[in-house]
């Protein structure tokens, strides 16, 4: 467990995703992940467009969430599961 969450985002429940974004400073935006029931597997499947338009977030925070959090989590997950 890392910060109370499983180390692999694919194993995260919806509340793990919400807690991750709250911890990252996106308190208001974290609610959108909860409302849309985004768990770890869903998070890893999200595209840039999903984050920018599907969650109905303001553009600035949505861009930061995708570029600095979703995309790196996806890349890390792919690296860890390709070896």
TrEMBL record:
GO biological-process terms attached to the record: negative regulation of DNA-templated transcription
CDD domains for the chain: SAM_Atherin-like
Pfam families the UniProt entry points to: SAM_1 (PF00536)
SAM domain: residues covered: 12-60
InterPro entries the UniProt entry points to: PcG_chromatin_remod_factors, SAM, SAM/pointed_sf
Single GO MF descriptor: chromatin binding
Gene Ontology, cellular component aspect: nucleus
PANTHER family: ATHERIN-RELATED, POLYCOMB GROUP PROTEIN
UniProt-recorded name of the protein: Sterile alpha motif domain containing 13
Organism annotation: Cavia porcellus
Top-level taxonomy: Eukaryota, Metazoa, Chordata, Craniata, Vertebrata
Recorded name of the encoding gene: SAMD13
